[in-house]
Write a structure and sequence with these properties.
heterotrimer, A mainly alpha (278), B mainly alpha (264), C alpha/beta (251), A: 278 residues, 77% helix
Chain lengths: 278, 264, 251
């Protein structure tokens, strides 16, 4: 950019300058328009809510939260049972993440615009957006009817969503690879598989790892939710039974603490992983 | 040369270790789940077939369209309202907790773990506890989404504020500006684009999760799907799914578009 | 007039940042602070508006003492001390004009400050200042769309908006190309004369200090080893300022 020369000499600045209005920035307009619209929607939303008896409800909530967090106990179930159920949910999350990651990597190669032909990339993109648009729980419910209620339905349902989510994330990571890097191998006449092995994989494995880890966290959350809402077992099922059937919020508290403990371990691992790969 | 050989053999060992661990994890999970792999694999395609066969006569469910769109609109409205209120709370917490904007060491020490805990409490627990106190009303779903989002947004906002950096704050401190002027005229405008970006991400997520929360709390479009599905009114359930797909994709597309403009 | 006496600063890790630094600077002059990296140039400059608080010594600007000032008094004092930075530190999404108007925030009460309510007179003055640094045309452009040299000129206009007596410049040209460097340095020298400002600049390059500064302060290992007119900066003085090894042995 060329510098405009500073006004030379000591002439007094003109004081009759008009003050311009506004700013030439689309980004700024977008921020304002977005926030304005969202605030309006929020106002309408809050007006439609209008809770009935707020006072007693808040009191009972406070009471239950106290039971949950300050007086947790195991209730109907033994610690071994709960730990087993937690293990089941973790296994479910791990299984669906690994399957999802492997399938998604293959799909991502067909979705990334700098590797796949345009028509294929667009088709894959649309398909993945469709799958993602259907909530995980609906997939699980549908498969529960088709395959029968059980782990299989949860695995298939969760994997489906994982594949669609990770394909998008991986494809975006692949598209961020500088063109020069791919061209260097392309001009040497390397086969596509070799390009993937020596140019794509080394450049993206870092971000792939972090996306996969994020998905593992999501899958764990989903595994708990699916257990509760579709009755496919795991710690979510115990959570559902304790609160919706036995109204035993002390047991709910114990389960929440178990899940929190696992989440803590997970965050620790995530920090370590990030430090190693950074 | 020897060093080069050592480097490559080290690489190979790392690779073996990583793949070995993954395989072991997969096997372990398999043992724990006792999954019938063949049934699951064949089920994938059977599921699609079943979907098409049962959800297809959607036209027959058109009378339910009014009810469905009403509930869907209400669900989206609640998801957005919950996210916005959560964002307001999260922004205040983040200002008090972020290294760059906080003047209170105690708040800094407490808010990060608080956000972490809130984020990791399974929202199933929130939904069910709230259901007990607030009954089967939209307010229950609203509160559940709100509580879920607060922890997540606090963390995201704190990281965003920390990335704004000391420079911006110092520049305004040097003019003698007060704390709130620095926040409102310096920090927030500088961080506006990424903050709104996070907000959009959370709204997208919450609209997806609203279905699930609705199922657990018996409200909104999630409850409607559950109702239709469990009473075998599959075409109507299919119509719900189509409506959800439409809205989710519309929101995702507009969020992507907005984000492009924001980061321009 | 800015008077500094016996400033001392020791960092928590035991490193001595400043040792008994004192000098006196006149209005209408440009002073360059030079010295080897890590000698304490930045510590000194940032002590002058108390971004860093020295343990002892005094900084006096027009009868107001800064080292012992309360928070409110400090804020009051900072209104008269402008600062420009190596990385400009503009609010990038805001327009050049809004960035300049930030110079008035020190004078505002809570609510107008929060909401960024500026009077018409303030806006006119901000426009005049932008005109003075040659950027009136770019007033409505977001700061992030400007070049480095232009950003730094907005930074200068923001400092001028405070109607300061002193402007502190922390490596103002370290991120700029030679042409922009000349523009910025010329502008600063001109402003010092024209508005009777005390301008203090941290510099890495001795030749720039020689070209643009009236007065030079040499810092070595936290001590002020040179404090005189630019003309007096001879080879012996330079050797003293940049004597890295000896300073380490003796210090």
């Amino acid at each position: 950019m060329i510098e405009t020369p500073v006004t030379s000499g000591l002439e007094p600045p003109q004081l009759d300058l008009t003050v311009p209005k506004g700013i030439r920035s689309r980004s700024r307009t977008a921020v304002r328009a977005t926030l304005g619209t969202l605030l309006l929607v929020t106002a309408v939303g809050l007006l439609t809510l209008a809770p009935g008896q707020l006072g007693p409800a808040l009191l009972s909530l406070a009471h239950n939260l106290k039971l949950m967090f300050l007086q947790p106990h195991l209730g109907q179930d033994t610690l071994a049972q709960l730990l087993g159920a937690l293990g089941l949910s973790i296994a479910l999350a791990a299984y669906t993440t690994i399957i999802g990651a492997v399938v998604a990597f293959a799909c991502a190669l067909l979705t990334a615009r700098n590797l796949a032909p345009a028509w294929l990339a667009t088709t894959m993109r649309t398909l993945m957006a469709l799958i993602r648009a259907i909530p995980t729980i609906l997939w699980v419910l549908v498969y529960a009817v088709v395959i029968g209620l059980g782990t299989e339905a949860a695995v298939v349902g969760l994997s489906f969503h994982s594949v669609a989510y990770l394909t998008k994330a991986y494809a975006e990571a692949i598209e961020a690879i500088p063109t020069a890097k791919l061209d260097a191998l392309r001009t040497s006449g390397a086969r596509p598989l070799l390009i993937i092995r020596h140019a794509v994989w080394p450049s993206v494995r870092g971000s792939l790892l972090s996306w996969t880890f994020i998905r593992f966290e999501i899958n764990f959350t989903n595994a708990v939710a699916v257990g509760a809402a579709a009755g496919t077992g795991g710690i979510g099922y115990y959570l559902f039974m304790a609160s919706a059937f036995y109204f035993d919020f002390q047991e709910v508290g114990a389960i929440v603490y178990l899940v929190l403990a696992f989440a803590l371990v997970l965050e620790f691992v995530a920090v370590q992983l990030r430090r190693r790969t950074a | 040369m020897a060093e080069l050989t050592r480097y490559f053999s080290h690489q190979r060992r790392v690779r073996l270790l990583v793949f070995g661990t993954l395989l072991a994890l997969l096997l372990l999970a398999q043992v724990a789940l006792q999954l019938n792999v063949i049934e699951a694999a064949t089920g994938v395609f059977a599921g699609w077939g079943w979907l098409v066969a049962n959800f297809a006569p959607i036209a027959s469910a058109f009378p339910a369209l009014g009810e469905i769109s009403w509930q869907l609109a209400a669900t989206v409205l609640i998801a957005i309202a919950a996210t916005m209120v959560a964002a307001g709370v999260a922004l205040l917490l983040a200002l008090a907790g972020a290294r760059t904007t906080s003047h209170w060491p105690l708040a800094q020490a407490l808010i990060r773990p608080f956000a972490s805990i809130m984020r990791n409490i399974p929202f199933v627990a929130w939904a069910l506890v709230l259901l007990f106190s607030f009954k089967q009303t939209p307010f229950t779903g609203f509160l559940a989404l709100l509580l879920m989002s607060v922890g997540y947004l606090t963390r995201a906002f704190m990281e965003t504020l920390d990335e704004v950096g000391h420079g911006v704050i110092e520049a305004l401190e040097a003019t003698g500006a007060g704390y709130w002027a620095i926040i409102c005229q310096g920090v927030l405008p500088a961080a506006a684009a990424p903050l709104v970006s996070w907000l959009l991400y959370m709204i997208e997520n919450n609209i997806r999760d609203a279905t699930l929360v609705g199922m657990l709390t018996g409200t909104g479009v999630g409850f409607l799907f559950d109702l239709y599905f469990k009473s075998f009114r599959y075409p109507a359930a299919g119509l719900v799914v189509c409506a959800i797909i439409l809205v989710t994709i519309a929101i995702e597309l507009s969020a992507t578009k907005l984000r492009q403009v924001l980061n321009a | 007039m800015l008077t500094v006496t016996a400033l001392n600063k020791t960092y928590p890790n035991g490193k001595r940042g400043l040792i008994d630094v004192g000098f006196e600077l006149q209005a209408g002059t440009v002073t360059a602070i030079i010295g080897p990296s890590g000698a304490g140039k930045t510590t000194l400059l940032r002590s002058l508006n108390r971004f860093i608080t020295p343990e002892s010594g005094t900084i006096e600007l027009d009868g107001l003492e800064l080292v012992g000032a309360t928070r409110a008094a400090l804020r009051q004092a900072r209104r008269h001390i402008g600062m420009i930075f190596q990385d400009y530190n503009l609010i990038e999404p805001l327009s050049a004009l809004e960035n300049v108007l930030h110079g008035t925030l020190g004078d505002k009460r809570l609510l107008p400050g929060m909401m960024g309510l500026y009077t018409h007179a303030e806006k006119k003055r901000a426009m005049a200042l932008l005109q003075e640094v040659g950027l009136a045309e770019s007033a409505t452009q977001p700061a992030k769309s400007l070049s480095g040299g232009q950003k730094q000129r907005v930074g200068i206009a923001r400092a001028l908006m405070q109607s300061p007596q002193v402007i502190l410049c922390d490596e103002p040209i370290a991120s700029l190309d030679p042409q922009s460097t000349a523009t910025i340095m010329t502008l600063l020298a001109k402003l010092a004369k024209q508005k009777q400002l005390t301008i203090i600049i941290n510099l890495h390059q001795v030749d720039l200090a020689r070209e643009y500064a009236d007065h030079i302060i040499g810092i070595n290992a936290g001590r002020c080893v040179f404090d005189d007119a630019t003309a007096a900066l001879d080879d012996a003085a330079l050797a003293r300022i940049y004597a890295q090894e000896e300073a380490m042995v003796n210090g």
